[in-house]
Amino acid sequence: MAELLVVGSVALDTVETPFGRVEEVLGGAATYASCAASFFVPVRVVGVVGEDFPQEHWEFLRARGIDLEGLQMRPGRTFRWSGFYDFDLNTAHTLRTELNVFEAFQPHLPPTYRSTPFVFLANIDPELQHQVLDQMEAPRFVACDTMNFWIEHRRQRLLELLARVDMVLMNDAEARQLCQTHSLIAAARQLLRLGPRYAVIKKGEHGAMLFGQESFFALPSYPLEEVKDPTGAGDTFAGGMLGYLASVEEVSEPTLRRAVAYGSVMASFNVEDFSLNRLRTLTREEIAQRYAQLHEFTHFA
Amino acid sequence: MAELLVVGSVALDTVETPFGRVEEVLGGAATYASCAASFFVPVRVVGVVGEDFPQEHWEFLRARGIDLEGLQMRPGRTFRWSGFYDFDLNTAHTLRTELNVFEAFQPHLPPTYRSTPFVFLANIDPELQHQVLDQMEAPRFVACDTMNFWIEHRRQRLLELLARVDMVLMNDAEARQLCQTHSLIAAARQLLRLGPRYAVIKKGEHGAMLFGQESFFALPSYPLEEVKDPTGAGDTFAGGMLGYLASVEEVSEPTLRRAVAYGSVMASFNVEDFSLNRLRTLTREEIAQRYAQLHEFTHFA
User: Fold this and answer.
1) According to a count of CB atoms within 10 Å of the terminal CB, is the N or C end of chain A lower?
2) Domain residue spans in chain A?
3) Which of residues 242-271 of B touch A (CB under 8 A)?
4) pTM for the full model?
5) pLDDT per residue as tens digits for the range A10-62
């Protein structure tokens, strides 16, 4: 079992969906990814919060066994995001983004973090993703995510980042935007030409696709009659995926496929409730059960 | 091997996609479904064409071994549909529908057709779908499709039809519209309460889902970098699915899953070219190869 380092945002989210509304709840890409991964391996987080970051959140993350030495606390307010979803739960509509302590954030990796073998660069300014990689000592496997804002405003640095990672994860809209094509298959082939050995395209309720230079895998999502809040689905997917890969310490076609399935399972749990609430009560046994179900739901002879 | 009866439209289509335009080419739900099914079993068609229906189309259908005794020729013009697709190839935009000989169409089944064990009621007025069933002698398995127009204008007759069939096939938008819910899982459960033992929801590039009372199966679509013309994708899917089921003469969870995969394979070939052009050159060997590939693309241990 290998450790996983996660860098990204830690946030307080205000979210409204057709099924309810929550205010200033625990959120952020690094939070979701770390919590999901913590069901599989020891996780180390790099990020920043403000002085207003509630004590209970520190305690929750610590209770999940997450190493918080790299989570800086800075004077000022924690990063905040607010948004809503309508019945098409695949698309988040941002109402407001308050960078706050993120504005001046510089990732400094504690010495114990630098040799972490698996790395997930969750959604954050590509410049900061580069800075984290600069401080790492030859990691075995690096994956990154991004978002539309960086594709638009940091395109060059993002392309340079893709040349430094083993795997890129994006949702369908981001892949189309970056590669300027409607076809996700064409987009994925283009992503692979930019550097990574693997590209994962996340399609929300429509599942996920894994592309290698010579391989392809597609998995439908776990069927849920009700999705309460899709916030963090992509991050819990990535966390589950990377967490599983780090736990088996092997990156091969069979382990990658299982990793996609574990990612999908973690995301499916996460969207059943607001914030990370479902992960608070989730057990390893429930994960194993749903994984087996997902296999049964997608298998044909 | 059992025979399959198909009722539905036979049309001359004018279609524009980002990849080209064709005028008055062979089309229609029954045509696509029959041709796809004819790779698996003997097919019998019920439909109507006008006197202008080109001789070459008769010959093509006959050459595929399709029984055309139930395809009436009536004075007047053949049914015509024209539409276009933009880069979101999942949605057809209708420009014009000319019913022509369809306006007064009454299906009369030749006596040899009445005992056909498998029946596919392709998209057509639910009233006509009922009339076909009224003439059948205890078919073993009946599946039906429909479209937004009938959901809106023949809702009651359509609901009555669902109570008479073993399986309903719909695309995602139609299922949402009929069941008035955004959730496809909720929609499918509702469809099953209306009568059929199985519901298949077709999601175009996102694959298909098969729902039974106690079972669920989801399959991603075969990955295509370029889709030239999605017209007939749903019908070739249904034709491949029903054709395979009739060929094995067994409706069980394993055969239904394989049937979904064969349907998906047939649809993936069909969208590679305009009209039914790809089916004209398609071989059983190509079907077997792509089926094996689809299995490989979707399998995890």
Assistant:
1) C
2) 4-298
3) 254, 257-258, 260-261
4) 0.95
5) 999 999 999 999 999 999 999 999 999 999 999 999 999 999 999 999 999 99
